[in-house]
Amino acid sequence: MARKITAQPKPDDGGFYCYIGPNLAGLIQSGTIYMGTKEEALAAAARAIEKQPLVKTLIVSGAALPEARLKVKKPGNALYANYQKVAAGREGK
Predict the structure, then answer these.
(1) How many CA within 13 A on the CB side of residue 68?
(2) Burial bucket for residue 85 (CB in 10 Å: 0-12, 13-18, 19+)
(3) Helix (H) or strand (E) run with residue 17 in it
(4) From CA 19, how far away is CA 64, in angstroms rounded?
(5) 18-32 tens-digit pLDDT
(6) Integer Cα distance of 60 and 84 in angstroms
(7) Residue 59: DSSP 8-state
(8) What gap in Å lies between CA 23 and CA 11, rounded to an integer?
(9) Maximum pairwise Cα distance, the chain
(10) pLDDT in tens, 60-91
């Protein structure tokens, strides 16, 4: 007998989040995976967010990851701009 799935998971119901920004030595590494909710991911990355607030915008849900990974490499959108700003801040220190 087949089971019927009645509810679709919501994007913030858990799952995972991924940091798609540049490496920040001692703070956060590109590709870091955070299991759980967005709030839990942001809490885990709090030190990096404190030093570079735009890190918060570069932590994306697993559902958004494929598209977001392309956007950070292509000029003309917020993810690209934020990636560049975080990278520039990293080099300035």
Answers:
(1) 18
(2) middle
(3) strand 16-19
(4) 12
(5) 999 999 999 999 999
(6) 16
(7) E
(8) 26
(9) 61
(10) 999 999 999 999 999 999 999 999 999 998 65
Query: Structure tokens of 42?
Result: 């942001």
Residues 6+ apart with CB under 8 A from 29: 19, 23
Backbone region of residue 19 per phi and psi (left: phi > 0; alpha: psi in -120 to 50; beta: other values): beta
pLDDT at residue 83, rounded to an integer: 97
Decide: pTM greater than 0.85.
no
Query: Which tokens belong to 82?
Result: 């934020």
Q: What distance in Å separates the CA atoms of residue 2 and residue 24, rounded to the nearest whole number?
A: 48
Sign of CA dihedral 19, 22, 27, 32: positive
